[in-house]
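Assemble and predict.
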Amino acid sequence: MEEIKFQELFDLLENNHFAKMKAILSEMNEVDVAEFLQELETEKLLLIYRILPKDLAADVFPYLETENQQAIVEGYTDKELRVLIDDLFLDDTVDFLEEVPANVVRRVLANTDAETRSTINRFLQYPDNSAGSIMTNEMVELHDNLTVNQAIENIRKTGVDKETIYTCYCIDPSRHLIGILPLKSLILADGNTCVRDIMDDVDQVISVKTHTDQEEVAALAKKYDLLTIPVVDNENRLVGIITIDDIVDIIEEENTEDFEKMALVHPSESEYLKTGVFKLAKNRILWLLILMISGTFTGQLIDKFQGMLSLVVGLTASIPMLMDTGGNSGGQTATLIIRGLALGDITVKDYFKVLWKEIRVAAICGSILAVVNLGRLFIFGHADAKVYLVTCGAMFCAVVFAKTIGCTLPILAKLCKLDPALMAGPMITTIVDAVTLMIYFGLASVFLLHN
Amino acid sequence: MEEIKFQELFDLLENNHFAKMKAILSEMNEVDVAEFLQELETEKLLLIYRILPKDLAADVFPYLETENQQAIVEGYTDKELRVLIDDLFLDDTVDFLEEVPANVVRRVLANTDAETRSTINRFLQYPDNSAGSIMTNEMVELHDNLTVNQAIENIRKTGVDKETIYTCYCIDPSRHLIGILPLKSLILADGNTCVRDIMDDVDQVISVKTHTDQEEVAALAKKYDLLTIPVVDNENRLVGIITIDDIVDIIEEENTEDFEKMALVHPSESEYLKTGVFKLAKNRILWLLILMISGTFTGQLIDKFQGMLSLVVGLTASIPMLMDTGGNSGGQTATLIIRGLALGDITVKDYFKVLWKEIRVAAICGSILAVVNLGRLFIFGHADAKVYLVTCGAMFCAVVFAKTIGCTLPILAKLCKLDPALMAGPMITTIVDAVTLMIYFGLASVFLLHN
């Protein structure tokens, strides 16, 4: 459907039918308008953006890429800029300013009133990924001595500029958060009830500090099914709120970070297609180097046992399979444990429960793999039966060791306040490879050489 | 803080101070109450659950584990059960019924009125992971000829039983969805305006069908920053809504599924600690077997070149390092591409852009790795310089091949409507291993054997 609409818009643009375009765009969802605009060259984008109704323009702005936002701001007169900034929500303005060069920031700030400027400056100073850096200050604040009718009247007057009106925040004269009031309670209550009597008291309210990590904010929102979370300073004064749309973005950001770390890619905040080649290479090379160097240890092991390997037929051929199976077994376990830790399903306290579980799972998987492998070797192989038994014994040990290390390292990392996500497949593989070979060569030395 | 509160509650329970417990629990958040209850043995849990105020009990219920929910239902009289089911939201009841044995389902259904029973039965029939299976039918429905004041009056009367009142749905007499109306618009509008004039028309409304996959529902909610999504049947009649708290759960579920698939673990819907050992082993063994068998191909390669390996000193020792580095390089790329595809940042159309990017990244990473490795070999090695050059050449080729295959396979999978997540590290490693060895042995045969 969108495709068809986009095609129609392209045709209109081709023929300079701007009035018709404006009519269609005005009826579209702001997200789709942004998507359409991004398909245009910058010049055309600026042209079309200007014909959008003022409100829609402000709604579309946050959904544009930073470079397009910057182009718009740079093309705007000071007067147009003032109107735009005034219509944007504060968190979207701050998000934008965090990404653009200093001269653009200065120009935007020069076109805001003194109060907004000081708020933006304060918000810009909160550390990256902290609650302060993602919050907005456009929330409904109510004093607790109002009646329900007065509160609703208050919302009607001020609500249009608020990012959400569905949760109202009750504050005392010094702006301390003393309770929250979902709009639902307000609407359903009798008009003459006092706000104080129906609000949720502050000790029941989930709130975060400005410096709370965004990951923790997302975890609380998920746990308590919240639409918004209030942000308070150290004296419990309300300074902002974080809304669910931003929390959903954080959840996806944190997941992406975990995916990247688990593949030993240095996490990057920019989208793949927008990241330069050198940046992409830089994000990957460090871990590749570290793992390559540590991989040489495995090579030295093979070197050391070269004599035995050339002596016993059929020993070398199983090395890749043993290493792969060990790595894969460990990677499976590590992934499940890392994910369990991230979701809070598993805690450090559960270690022994997890270990015992993994050892049993490893025993089952290891036995099946060893038996299947034994069958395969007997059917297709052409070496001594003893070699096969050693291979399968090593296979079983490798799986048990891999799954043990695969559940231990992530939990150990968590215990040491390191990120468990680093202890995933590639890291586990490197360790398991070396140990698997040691087991293999050890078993081979004992059972194959002395006969 | 919770820990302290929990300790206090445990002490009170120990001393049978139920009145005091009830007072404390009544002031707590339902999620925390559920967390506390789960720490108790079933018998104690039932005891304490019964002393909760009726409303809180219904709020707590959805946050309990299925086995505890079942214990409560089994311990309840028919009368108590009727009250509980009546207070639960329909989607929570359906979630519960999807998990419990048929006799529990029958008993619950026997204690609901005919209309609810028929609705529940219909909802239970929607396929797993479809929009129909996660929706609720407790939404605010408005006719479009009401005035704003009438609509608010309507919400005040019926809102208490609705899962959300923040988005209202405008329907015609045959229940066709004709528009939606955020409560914010309703509150901010003049009381005598007609609902029809301020609602968002249906062609601007994002909705899904009952059979839409939940992954798609979550993607829409993320893209358009929605708090709820209406679900309609094939004739565009409103049948339910999906709320953001369920969407957040879906997002995490889908991410977990991707993590599992990428580690080649068969996705499971139950939490790790609650999954039995045999089930865990079953979820992992298939892929381990497949990869083990395909790993034998690599072994056969080594077997075939055994002669050369024993002839040329220093050749075997680099095999693990080459295989690891190839696997890791490919895994990094595959992870970034799979994630980009999942988030919609990358589409199949971007393939050649991605490929060209990855080839350049591979050239940079491959060169650095080869040079570092060369340096290491010259300093610590004791073989012929030609062997080192062949090793480093193979290293470079392996990285380029790995990154090529790492970006190609996930996009190819997407193109073939397969799940790209399967084409992650472990799968890539198996393919890259074999090819890396072929390159290595090929180069070695050409440059080392004929001298």
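Residues 134-245 of chain B form a domain with the CBS-domain fold (CATH 3.10.580.10).
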